[in-house]
């Protein structure tokens, strides 16, 4: 397994601070997701990891097969760049054979892997077609095969789902889950929060080159400390002035005369809330609204953008979902 | 190993059997048309009818013209037919001789030149001289060349000129092919972002070396196949004309030397092109594209001194490493080169190539990872002289 430790890494392009003092660990055999809006620093971070650029400060430590490295050892990783790039005037097979040869694979090993992945990604009938003739989604799948063909210990995928239809997104999701099960470490950046939520063991939310939250989904949720809201429905219409009188409710939003979304005052329990609500009328339904990663992401980035100069702690205060 | 993988890939990228055959077919067609053109032209062009008013003597002779001698007393009738019966009338009864035509036309210059010689001959014949005296005046005097140093063999001047022109043409073909392939390959790879993935598999140095090797080999192949093709066509035409086969007035060593210098020269030129092409972000809008023509300068310089193969300038150009790949083969085809000069030139060329390739790879590494902008001239200069750019 391959394990990565990044400590105090920073990168500046002219006046732009693309990455600011980032430290994190990618445990071996896990799927680690980098999240963030465009320009958050995800691709800059990935480019430093794969050695396309050098960090201005900080260091990257790689632990692979019991050895320590300062950069990723040759052949141990596959990289899917954000800007896709293969030879459009060459066929699928020619492109992949060339990549395989450059990775030092034998012809028989290349052909074996080619047959497997082309079959797996439903590209067998396209193998002799030039890349320029393929759809964007199929080009994306060929690019993905070029990262997988040598069975790397680490996969670094910058926007792997872009250009893929929902069926192929699921397909790739399954493949990544299988690779993880085999011990492959995966680092990916993506905007498809629903997919990341299902896939990632660890995640790091970046904005303007800074960490907004990191950890597993539960930890990220805790770090962002979202205000939990509850959905309540009454059997009859409720006068909003009655809600105003409730001491357990900090904020509410009426969805209809019978249905409301509520936020609790601090230190108030759900039991206390229910007692007060039952005095207003007969409850038809009551549920806790669980924020999705998508909601957390939007809220956190919005707050961070509003108070970038105050740093992470300030940005996270009062994140409401 | 990776360098060879890249070199083979780059070679095959441009080597396509179908296109090779089409290329040869086109060359055959061009040769056929060029050869048939005079025949076709003569068949289509009409002969110009020219009346020559002269008391006596013979009429001039010129391809494409029909001359008819007529007595001077028919001048009025003949001149009345200008533009209809006659395209031109030559009146020798007046001084200077008069050429009468309806309007100015390009064929008149050709006719005028022939008429001058014809009239000169007539005037000489009219002088009170013996036949021998007349011949002395009319014929150019002969000059016998005598050399103190024994000539190594009968020089085939025509063959030497053919070899020089051929070498220069093939060099231009190689250099401009390299320019085209390298420029389009690298700028397209940058635009298609192929670089991102490949640079995680290769160092910029490996990539550039493989690319230079593959494209230089392809250029050399193009030069050799074109040279062979032209040679065979020349032989075929000589065979048709019942002329002896054209030989190449070069020894085995001279051929080997030419291939060596040209091969090293292509590597040198393509190193420059690879390094520079990597600094161009968008070939359609970059003002730097014109710089890619710079490697054609050595060819121009060698061409300018080709007529004086023993001259000091040719000696300098054939030793100076940035021009020797073009000048040395030309010089060797036309004169003898002392071995020490040959060895010095080769050593300088290899040394220059070694340094130049390293410098170009630093520029390549700087430019190949830049998207959306180009490194400025100061960055390029710093990389070229040896400072590693921080990326």
Overall average pLDDT of chain B: 85
Order of helices and strands of chain B: HHEEHEEHHHHHHHHHHH
Basic shape of chain B:
elongated
The overall strand count of chain B is 4
Question: Major sheet of chain A, described briefly?
Answer: 6 strands, mixed
User: What characterizes the major β-sheet of chain B?
Assistant: 4 strands, mixed
Strand content of chain B: 5-15%
| Mean pLDDT level of chain A | 87
What is the share of helical residues of chain B?
Answer: 55-70%
Describe this structure in words.
- The complex is a heterodimer of chains A (321) and B (391).
- Chain A has 321 residues and is α/β, with parallel strands linked by helices.
- Chain A has two domains: 2-222, Rossmann fold; 229-289.
- In chain A, 36% of the residues lie in helices and 28% in strands.
- Chain A contains eleven helices and 14 strands.
- Chain A has helices spanning 42-49, 92-102, 107-120, 136-148, 166-181, 193-199, 217-224, 240-245, 270-280, 293-306, 311-316; strands at residues 2-13, 16-26, 31-35, 57-64, 67-69, 77-80, 154-158, 185-189, 202-207, 210-215, 229-234, 249-254, 259-264, 283-289.
- In chain A, a hairpin with a 2-residue loop joins strand 1 (2-13) and strand 2.
- In chain A, helix 2 crosses helix 3.
- In chain B, strand 3 (88-91) and strand 4 (98-101) form a beta hairpin.
- In chain B, strands 2-1-3-4 form a four-stranded mixed beta sheet.
- The two termini of chain B are 27 Å apart.
- Chain B has 391 residues and is mainly alpha-helical.
- Chain B folds into two domains: 2-34 and 157-385, no CATH class; 48-133, D-Maltodextrin-Binding Protein, domain 2, CATH 3.40.190.
- Chain A binds chain B through residues 50-54, 74, 77, 79-90, 98-99, 101-104, 143, 146, and chain B through 1-2, 5-6, 9, 13, 189, 192-202, 369, 371, 390-391.
